[in-house]
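Shipment paperwork, digital attachment
Item: protein structure file
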Amino acid sequence: MILRDYEQEFFDGLDNGAARRNGIRKAIDAALEKQDAENAMELYYQFIEEDIFHCDNLQATLVFPEYLAYFEAHEELQDSFQHEMMWSFKWIINNFYQFHQISIDQIQRIFEQYADFCKRYNYSLRTYYEFLAIFIRESLPPEESFMGVTAREAFRRMMRTTRDDISDCKACELDNEFTYYLFVEDDLEKALDVIKPVFSGKLHCAEVPEVTYASLAEYYFYHDDLKSAVENATKSYRMIHRQGDKTGSLAKSLSFNFQIIAYHEPEKALKIMKEILPEMATNQNSTDCYTFFRAAYHVFLCLEKAGYHRIRLKLPFRDESLPDGDGQYDIPVLRQFMYDKAKYYADKLDARNGNTLRIDQLNRTFEFKNADIKKPSKLDIPALEYIDEYLDQGVLPQDFSLPKKKPADDEPQFADGALDGISYFHTEPYQDELGELEDIIRLAGSGNSRAAVSKTEKYFEDPEKRAFHLMDNVQEFIMDNRDELDPNDIYDYGIGLTVGAKNYEAVKIGLSVLEVFSDYNDKLLEAIMKLSSSDEFTLFCIWAVKRLENSNDLIFSMAQHTIGWGKIFAVYYLEPETDEIKQWLLYNGIHNSVHPGYLANKCFEAADVQELLESEPDIDELQAIAYIIYFLLEDGPTAGIRAYENGDDIIDSFLDNVQRVGTQDADDENFPRIVEFVRRYRDEPHDDEEEQ
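Attachment content:
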């Protein structure tokens, strides 16, 4: 068999990570069984690489001695495979000590063995001193020596030793030099000077500058500069997030990032933590686990300080120290749990290293002078990207709001979606003239969509210009001038605004442009659904999808993933096509954070409440109906009970059903109070009756 045959049979097409690594292991076993030494050697190398860069390094650490013994046993292949062996050995040297089970004596022996291999095959000791310096820096107190050298001495020897073809790339070496000056010399100025080629974009690799920004963030964090720490941690997180890889060599950087972000935006840090949490179910790397659980401890510490009391969290593992609360946990309980997990790994690593470095780090407290940093008054990233950072299974935190400019003292601060909601429900509809926007659309339609996106954002810097009062004219202008405007360019313009605009009104215009086409691939539709989770954009997302075949399913999803104005819009447009939707409207439809009265009439009709009242509903159905009746009767933003000529009959029917089933079996403490309110409403005269 050739190597490609093993790949096709055992791991072709498998995703990076454990699945691919395990497939390679099966290929190794097959090659060994066939005594196919040449391909076995290549497969060992691929196995080590996969586990180092996409898993927790444990299997690479366990399998490497087997690989090394196989290499030593096949002298006839050593010349051909010594380069791959040395690269594998180098990766092991940089990671194996992260497991607390490996003793200090074993660490020393493996470093000595690596130095011997370098000499045997005529490689320089540059990588030996490089990783020795990193191990000492990360594991021992400053100035303490290991194998006769300190971190400073090992680094200087590395710098005096020539590069060769197993040396790290220049970007990685500069990153190592950068972190040395930060954490050993405490020389920020020198570190920033060294790293200029990386930060300027001249040098980069698979992990640099992602890990570089994380190191800089960590430095600022421990030097009481939270603002700079958050800026760099956020930058690092976004770069890693775009890669989509949360394991391997980037895992520690992600943990540093969300620990720091917790002191600025704990909810955002919680979202990042949840992204990584599933990986921790199987991660056995002691350093990764310590870093993650330490960061998670800080997240819950910050959530607690911010006034949070209880959250829902799906843990990927069971632990007897946590009460089984159906996924609901008190913040102090989670804080202590994460601390205890971090302490376990800190104690193990410190005991191995003979110091208290990590437990001291874990117990350090932080009270930043500038910890009250506010959200930026102006987005510095696209609205979609900002929303995406906060989404958790399609839902935004209940108190989420988009960053807005602080209003003048005499102006109100509107909630997300409120201005459009007020216009939709409480004002006469009208459309403004497009003015300059016509020229911008012409620019987009002539092949300059990128410039048009920028000009559109500038156009909407005027707070008097709102997409709600322009969208119809925008769509009409595009249709009236379709002979002049290239449809592909206009479509690109709509996409550019929708996914790339920072200005909220510009995003809405983008959605309005896309509505003209109503043609979306999966990725664009996913972006629209993410935007719809924000109350500010839900209405325009509804319009963007309403001509699709599955529009009602999409609007139902929007209704289930919003709570404010977005839910009001979604429920208002939702058609009760299925029993599932009717049931949801009955039990959940009316409840929103703005005013349930907006949806009382809609839910009464769409959930067939009249028919339910006539068919002897059970206690659960009556409790749900009670809220709908209550908000029909309350003086709210819509017509309410006045919309029905048989309003008195509706009230009597509800109360008759209550009398039939009673209130003693109700599990909603509000139910008896609502019933009493309805009785008083029926029995007391109202303003319209008194006038008669």
